[in-house]
Amino acid sequence: MKPLSRSYYLRPTLQIAQELLGKYFIRRIGKNLLIGKIVEVEAYRSNDPASHSFRGKTNRNSVMFCEGGHLYVYFTYGMHFCVNIVTGKEGIGEAVLIRAVEPLVGIEMMKTNRYGSNKSLNLHSLNRKSLINLTNGPAKFCQAFGIARQENGLDLLESEISITDGDHIPPKLIKRSSRIGIQQGVEKKWRFFIKGNPWVSK
DNA sequence: ACCATGATCCGCT
DNA sequence: GCGGATCATGGTT
Question: What's the CA–C1' distance between A137 and C6, in Å?
Fold first, then answer.
């Protein structure tokens, strides 16, 4: 499968956010492969008080102002990373936060990344609850896919991380709501998710 | 002081 | 099993 093209990421952010649902987020680590189906996202736009880009470019958010198709990874709450797909032309400062994926390939490595290599713990994590807990939140997804500071600024068109076409999601299954965990911009319904998918965060 | 979170604890069905 | 409160932990403004 070929990575989505540059022009894909240069379209309106709200449109990209919805269309990313069902796409495959792919990471190669050596000869290992991790694949997750995107099931929940949020759009963050310029002139959007909830967006990291709202107060202009800083050292932390500078990648958000790159050309669309790059990864913006940020550190939050003293211990977590979250990852966004930068959208739009260079200098705009918009992005789509990946909030949850459904794990498809590389589940053993995701378990190790989330729960460690302790064998008894991994056996315990075979149950359904632990499978869902792998990637049903933005920081959980990052941990499962080993995404941290090093991945900030990676280009989805020429790095070990890419996004490809995936499953077609019937429009009836795409729902929207307010974004999670913000204080400003609550009135904007810019969270999009696949209705009924077990990996959508609560 | 705040923060685009997650894990755990506690009281209740 | 649940839902709500609390805490862990450090970078940013």
Answer: 20
Token output for A18: 């919805």
CB A96 within 8 A of CB A83: no
pLDDT per residue as tens, chain A (202 positions)? 899 999 999 999 999 999 999 999 999 999 999 999 999 999 999 999 999 999 999 999 999 999 999 999 999 999 999 999 999 999 999 999 999 999 999 999 999 999 998 655 544 445 888 999 999 999 999 999 999 999 999 999 999 999 999 999 999 999 999 999 999 999 999 999 999 999 999 8
Which listed CATH number (1.10.443.10, 3.40.50.980, 3.90.650.10, 3.10.300.10) goes with A6-194?
3.10.300.10
Q: Would you kindly state where each structural domain of chain A is located, as residue ranges?
A: 6-194
Chain B bases having any atom below 7 Å from a protein CB: 3-7
Tokens of A181: 């965990």
Q: Is the CB of A21 under 7 A from strand B?
A: no
**For A49 and C4, how far is CA from C1' in angstroms?**
28
Structure tokens at A152: 């900030």
